[in-house]
Each structure stands twice: as C-alpha cells, then as structure tokens.
Amino acid sequence: MSAVRPLISIKAGKCNQVGTRIIPSPEPGLLYIYNSAEDELLHFCWRRRSATQPQAEDDLIIFPQDVTFTPYTACTTGRVFVLKFTSSSQRHFFWLQSKSESDSNPGHWSNRDRRWGETINNILQGVEDEDDEMGDPDAELGSEDIEEEGNASRRGGADGGRADSPSPFTTTTTTTTNPNDFLKSLISSINVGTAPPNPSGAGPSRYAQQTPTLSLHDLLNTTTTVPLLSTLPTTSLDHLCANLPPALIPHNATSAQKRDIIRRVLQSPQFAQSCVSLTVALRDGALRGVADSLQVPLRPGEEASGADQVELFVGGVRRGVEQEEAAGDDEMED
C-alpha cells in the first residue's frame, strides 16, 4: 500500500465500550482521514503509532453527512470524541493523546482540541475547511509517520505529547435500535440464492448436517448484488433509497446517481458489518423479535422448527413481498 495523503491526522487512542463504561486503551494511536484515489471515497482510519506497516488497523468508508464526530460530554475525566453513524447504531470512541493544556484537569477541552474535532466533523460532513493554520494538507503519511508525526499534514498533537496510562472512566451510554430496513428492502428487491430444497425429505437436523449454514453476508455479497443493480426498476431503486439516510440521496437524484449510491453502500464495510450483526442476532434467538419489528411474516412457531434461522428470515421477507403483490392484484381486480 502506498503512502496516503491525509486531510487531517491527530494523536488519538481507541476506547472500548464495556456495558456502560468507556475504557480507553493506552496504545498510542494515530487517527487520520484521507480521500482514496482508488475508490474515490472518504476513509476514516486509525492505526497504532508503533506499527511497522502503513496499513490502517481500522478503515471505515464514510459517506458525507452519514456520521458525526463530536466531543463525548458524558466523560469528564478525559477528552473523548465519539464517531456516530446515522444509518446504523455504530459508535466508535477515541481519546485525545496530545498533552492537555490544563495540568490539573485532564478532561479540559481547549480551543485547540475543539478545533481539531470541528475540522474532522466538517470533513465528514463534506464541508470545506479553509483554516490555513492547520498545516499542509498535501503531506504524506508514510510508515515512518506512525512514530514520528513531525509538523506536516494538519497534524494534531504534534507537541510530542504521548499517551500516559489512563485510568478507566465510567460513563453512561445509550444505544439506538437498528431496524435493518435497508437489508430487508434489499432482500425483497433482488433474487438472492438460498439453500436448495432437501430432496430426501429429511428433517431439519439432518439437512443442517448436509448443507452449510446461511449467512446474510454470503447471500448479499457484492458479486451477487452489484451486478443486479443495473437490472432493478426505478420503483425498486426508490424503495431501497427510502431506507437510506436522506442526506445520502441528493435532491432530484437521477436513477444513475441512485444506483451509484446504493453500489457504494453495498461495498462499504458498514454494510458488511450490518449483515454479520443481523446474522448473529438471528442465530442467537432474535428471529421472532427482528421479524416482528420489520413486519416480516413468519408462520406460527416457525422460529422453533429447527430450520436455519437466516433462511427462515429470508423466506419470510419473500413471503411478505408475495402477499403485498397478491393484495395489489386483488385491488386492481376490484
């Protein structure tokens, strides 16, 4: 991987969320944002400053106005930013590792600290930041930059402040529900393959031994979904876009623009993670709850039949589509 040219980079460590506690990791880290020349997308990245390879440990693809990066005010014992997605319940916490401007209060937010956060948030919102004092935006992040940040590239924390071993701090967090409406809409709009019927007529337990378990990530992989985008009618495109954050869809967007936006969503790490998360939830016994919240029709007791839970969910989505189409045909006849 060649060196990237960050729009901004700051010294920041990651935090782990354990229940209601946000626990900072003492690992010295580097947080940076760059525009990829390969996929023409905005990347939000984090890596260890001690790393010997230039690859980011965390690399999130960002769609403008889909995320916010703001101070996490529930924390009073450190300077913590929270990255929140409007299209999902994802949250990522990062703590500033540059030296605090207050020796007596580690949670003190200086104008410099807030300005770094505002600049990052503006970039994520697609707002141009013209602050010349932030440094040279054309400076490259080579592998040597992990340990020696220097003076280039709008680099925050270049005062040499290193991460002291922090003591865990406790804060109360709230979570939002991810309804997975886009996943449901996608399944109902395209013909994804599922496991073939069991020719022997064997029961679910024997069938499960012969057939690999299903995963939404496998069913909705990009080799299946992306080629089908070109065949979707306008009504299906509109239905999919209706379940995306409004900020992602330009006003009066053309069909070509909508297809491109959906393609980028399908290729994003967040979409892959959503597929994995929903698959895990379905396998952990949440099929009935998820189906009810998304108004996916299941047969009575179907979740306890021993059949593959993901296949039951996909089958329920298709059954709902068939019922809607049948209801529409009845209305036309009347």
UniProtKB/TrEMBL annotation:
Q: Which GO terms describe its cellular component?
A: cytoplasm; nucleus; proteasome regulatory particle, lid subcomplex
Primary residence: cytoplasm
Report whether Amino-acid biosynthesis shows up as a keyword of the record. Answer: no
UniProt keywords (A-Z) are: Cytoplasm, Nucleus, Proteasome
**Annotated Acidic residues bias:** 127-150
Compartments in which it is found: Cytoplasm; Nucleus
The record's listing under PANTHER family reads: ADHESION REGULATING MOLECULE 1 110 KDA CELL MEMBRANE GLYCOPROTEIN, PROTEASOMAL UBIQUITIN RECEPTOR ADRM1
Protein name according to UniProt:
Adhesion regulating molecule
